[in-house]
Amino acid sequence: MNLRTALHLGLITSLGSLGVLLVSDCTEDARLDNRREAAQSSLMELLQRGEHFHMDIDAHSLEQPTALCDGQGTLQAIIYPGTGTGYAGEIDFIAALNMEGEVTGVRVTSHAETPGIGDVIETAKSPWVHSLASRPRDATAWKLARDGGDIDGISGATITLRGLLRGLDEALSQDSPTCPQ
Q1: pLDDT in tens, 119-156
Q2: Which one in 63, 94, 158, 164 has a CA-CA gap of 20 to 30 Å to 128?
Q3: Of 57-61, 112-116, 159-163, which one has max mean pLDDT?
């Protein structure tokens, strides 16, 4: 390859990279808005509150367990964010716990698992994640049945499910926050 060809390839690569950066920058606000809306929707689903309960929490910005309190300072629910390690990397999720100490649901907020196999942790792809709801926080062995727990797995997605469950067990073992008095 001669110098002229190398310069042309370098120029084309630089222009392509600049184009990608410009498009990414122009769409960043829309992507963040979409992410916030999806997070709010997931939280509402988890809390099983529907339109009668408003909150302004972004699931992607949660860093520690968060107490959700009503206007009188009474604890209504707790949101637990967490991360597990699946087959293809980190699996970020949020889990909600009601006042009876029961998990009302878990929603994955981001992952890089294999499409068609590991993406069974998405509610749009599989009902499996719904099987984690209605389980007592402390009385559930957050492991697959084949690992001595009480949660059924899905063939082909074992590493993904184990990673999510380990992360969930760790998240739910944190101290519960309380409402400010």
Answers
A1: 899 988 999 999 999 999 887 889 999 999 989 999 88
A2: 63
A3: 159-163
DSSP string for residues in the chain: --HHHHHHHHHHHHHHHHHHHHHHHHHHHHHHHHHHHHHHHHHHHHHT-GGG------GGG--S-EEEE-TTS-EEEEEEEEEEE-SSSEEEEEEEE-TTSEEEEEEEEE--PPTTTGGGGSTTT-SGGGGGTTEETTTS--SBGGGTSSB---TT-HHHHHHHHHHHHHHHTSPPP----
The pLDDT score that the predictor gives to residue 179 is: 84
| Nearest residue to 70 (alpha-carbon basis) of 50, 55, 81 | 55
Question: In whole angstroms, what is the distance from residue 135 CA to residue 144 CA?
Answer: 14
Instruction: Tell me if 93 sits within 8 A of 84, measured CB to CB.
Output: yes
Nearest in space to 122 (alpha carbons), one of 103, 100, 106, 140: 106
Closest CA to 86 of 168, 146, 172: 168
